[in-house]
Design brief:
This protein is α/β, with parallel strands linked by helices.
């Protein structure tokens, strides 16, 4: 008997109240049990780059301490490895740690697209490209679930910013949705059968994602074939009965039974059907039954830390290497400068913040390797302001050194869950230090730690730059191995680095209005825009240097023409022509010549990582199918290939194409091709930029009216209103000030990045989020009383708020 069949048997024996009780969690991390039927409670907990299990004082913001676990490099880092097998190994390791800690489901991976470099949570995500995101997240999922531990793929869908993420409406056209923002989710469903999905906070088409039937049932289940459970993000539920009907199986966390009662009432009054309730209850019970197959184990901490260090080193991207300054010759004298060396920025703040087993200190790792060197702080780790005394000490340390290794980047308060960055700038304390060190005449090599692209004002003055992103608890060991030439960087960027955030195609539209954000750039995200518009960038997509050189042969296709029902194979020979072993990431882009529908100049449709010794050659092979050539045709609501000539480009990056071959592809489906050349011509010529798309052109591709941008003056306040919204009323200002003060006081001695996160995100939080934060400590009538007062019945509302 399958788990689904057994779950149906059990649910058939339940009362309506028992079924409804399964619609929400027991508390912050546990699902409810039904003891009389032998259904136990199970635990889910945060990820995604390691296990964040809180033993007590649970929260979803990384405030309270969790049990120690290996903090692997974040997805922004490991994605740069372009190594599917490495991601699978990390997934297995995370699954093993879940087994030890008796965790049934780990909440991750996050596969949201990096629409803007300013998104504060980009460190958790893989790429600006959907193909990369799906290809690398899938083996991670498979690795975790090989241990009979489930994942929760998040945040579904169109959650590409932190500003107002809880209440904003993401306004984007169907092609952008299907071609950019949904394919990674689709890939994971079809290839790895994930146990659970997590819906996002935001709205889409003016409907909360937790209540969006087209997303949760029509697309996810009916189209893609998802068989698992859909849970909410923590506090993402607005109307629970609507969510049940729309395919949301589980609300997290608990709300003291408030919404369970609403579900029961809705079934009894016919607002939702008992069949809808049964479906959700069956999915919850099935998950609980699956979790019982997990066997306990004790994982090998040292092995996991070694894996984390290898992953961090292999994912490091060599951005600059003038005159082959790296690797450093043996016998060179060097100094390490920068407080990040001793306390490395290794992960982001928020729900993914892990308590590491041990945070490696670069200096200690170098000493363990037998290195002799000097060290200077260079800057205060908790200050943006340059410290002239520390800089002078660093310059003095340069002395007789040949190399100066500077460890710099983005401090924790610069990027986090809960808020977005204002720009891409590094702290001036880091910039001034690097500038001064370049004046010493020494070889200056900068290691960057951070979750996102940065402005590098000193780029032309240094000799070398290595980007580690947020490399996990062993990033210190990884940097030591790179300095001592025990490891070589072999990563490439999975996002474009513009010179400034103003050059990003979403710049004018991000983060949007009070109630909505418009994705007017449509499909032109990341390199799809920069390359099509031929814009200069700091570093292009897919870029990364090596200690060796590679020669590309001429690509060969096994067909010169094909129907879209066929597959095509492209091969290319790669040779290591240098003196050092190395790994090359070979990329395949598809370019459609003269399309009717607007398209990017090319799109990534394949990549392979190949390791070669000096003089060695290997043949790399790619297989392309219909989806490799297709766009999403809104006329037929399906993927469609436009008959024509396609160039298959083989490159070392999106801007470094080494060879190409042409194929003619014939569509076997007769369909009208949408042609916007008259109604939306800007999308056919983006060389002048795409930051000023007129309303009428965006509406032409959107195909529906724009969502509301601002809150109406006389609009009634609801539980979905934010603390920012209610401050137009004096009682709202007083209430907000009090709640925020109490929330900040509750943080106590929490680290500064957590306090910064809560401070920055507070005004964007809806009133209903208080139920999640306060739990049973909050009187149930408090929010109702506040809303009554805000909506014009002041005295009555204040009396209700004062009741106990």
């Amino acid at each position: 008997m399958s788990f689904k069949e057994k779950a149906r048997e059990l649910v058939a024996q339940m009362t309506i109240e028992e079924k409804a009780s399964l619609m929400s969690g027991l508390n912050f991390w546990y699902l409810k049990s039904i003891e009389r039927l032998g259904i136990p409670s199970i635990m889910v907990t945060d990820g995604p780059h390691g296990l964040r299990k809180q033993a007590q004082n649970a929260d979803h913001l990384g405030i309270n301490q969790s049990v120690p676990a290996v903090c692997f490099p974040t997805s922004a880092a490991t994605a740069c490895s372009y190594d599917r097998e490495l991601l699978r190994e990390i997934g297995v390791a995370i699954g093993e740690e879940c087994r030890q800690e008796e965790v049934a489901v780990i909440l991750g991976p996050g596969v949201n697209i990096k629409r803007s470099p300013l998104c504060g949570r980009n460190f958790e995500y893989f790429s600006e490209d959907p193909y990369v995101s799906g290809e690398l997240a899938t083996p991670l999922v498979e690795g975790v679930q090989s241990q009979n531990v489930g994942v929760s793929v998040k945040h579904y869908a169109f959650n590409n910013q932190e500003t107002r993420r809880l209440t904003t409406d993401s306004v984007l056209d169907e092609r952008a949705a299907r071609e950019i923002y949904l394919p990674a989710f689709e890939k994971i469903v079809k290839d790895s059968d994930p146990w659970t999905f997590m819906c996002s906070y935001n709205l889409f088409e003016e409907i909360y994602c937790s209540e969006h039937k087209r997303l949760l049932i029509d697309i996810l289940r009916d189209e893609w074939g998802f068989k698992g459970l859909v849970m909410s993000d923590w506090g993402a539920v607005s109307d629970r009965p609507k969510g049940v009907a729309a395919g949301l199986d589980l609300q997290m966390p608990a709300d003291n039974g408030v919404n369970d009662s609403k579900v029961v009432e809705s079934v009894k009054n016919g607002s939702i059907t008992e069949a809808d309730l049964d479906t959700a209850a069956i999915n919850v019970v099935e998950l609980i039954l699956k979790a019982q197959t997990r066997e306990p184990m004790k994982y090998d901490v040292d092995a996991h830390r070694k894996l984390a260090a290898r992953a961090a080193a292999e994912s490091t991207v060599l951005l600059k290497n003038d005159d082959n300054v790296m690797p450093m010759p043996e016998g060179s004298k060097f100094a390490v400068i920068g407080s990040f060396a001793k306390t490395p920025r290794h992960q982001g703040a928020g729900s993914s913040k892990i308590e590491p087993v041990k945070l490696d200190d670069l200096c200690e790792c170098l000493k363990d390797a037998g290195a002799v060197f000097d060290y200077a702080d260079g800057y205060a780790i908790d200050s943006d302001i340059p410290d002239d005394a520390l800089i002078a000490e660093a310059v003095k340390t340069a002395g007789d050194k040949d190399y100066l290794f500077v460890i710099a980047g983005l401090p924790a308060p610069y990027e986090s869950e809960g808020f977005d960055r204002k720009n891409m700038k590094m702290p001036e304390s880091h910039n001034k230090l690097i500038e001064k060190l370049t004046e010493t005449g020494k070889k200056v090599v900068v290691f960057l730690l951070g979750g996102s692209p940065m402005e590098l004002t000193w780029q032309d003055k240094v000799n070398g730059i290595l980007m580690c992103y947020l490399g996990g608890e062993t990033v210190g060991k990884a940097m030591a191995d790179l300095i001592m030439n025990k490891q070589a960087p072999s990563g490439k960027l999975t996002e474009t680095w513009p010179f400034t955030s103003d050059e990003n195609p979403s710049a004018k539209y991000f983060p949007g209005y009070q109630k909505s954000v418009e994705y007017r750039e449509s499909i032109f995200v990341g390199y799809r825009y920069y390359d099509t518009a031929d814009k200069k960038v700091r570093f292009p997509f897919g870029y990364g240097l090596s200690y060796t050189t590679f020669e590309y042969g001429e690509p060969v296709a096994d067909k010169t023409s094909m129907d879209d029902t066929e597959t095509l194979t492209v091969t290319v020979d790669i040779k290591n022509t240098g003196n050092a072993p190395g790994s090359e990431i070979v990329q395949l882009y598809v370019a459609h010549k003269n399309p009717t529908i607007y398209k990017a100049v090319h799109e990534l449709k394949g990549f392979e990582k190949v390791s070669l010794t000096p003089g060695e050659s290997k043949t790399v092979s790619f297989t392309l199918d219909k989806r490799s050539f297709a766009y999403y045709n809104i006329k037929i609501s399906d993927w469609h290939v436009e008959t024509g000539e396609y160039e298959l480009q083989i490159g070392a990056s999106s801007r470094d194409i080494r060879g190409s071959v042409t194929v003619n592809v014939n569509s076997t489906v007769e369909a009208e091709i949408p042609d916007y050349r008259k109604t939306a011509p800007m999308y056919y010529d983006v060389k002048g930029g795409i930051n000023n798309v007129p309303d009428e052109q965006f509406l032409a591709v959107l195909g529906r009216p724009l969502s509301k941008r601002e809150r109406a003056k006389n609009e009634l306040f609801t539980e979905d209103s934010t603390f920012g919204d209610i401050q137009v009323k004096w009682i709202g200002r007083v209430f907000t000030k009090r709640v925020k003060r109490e929330a900040m006081n509750a943080l106590g001695n929490s680290v500064e990045d957590v306090k910064t996160m809560l401070d920055r995100m507070f005004t964007d939080m809806p009133l209903r989020s208080m139920r999640m934060m306060a739990g049973d400590k909050m009187p149930p009538q408090l929010v109702d009383g506040l809303l009554t007062a805000l909506n014009g019945h002041l005295i009555k509302g204040i009396r209700m708020m004062g009741q106990r």
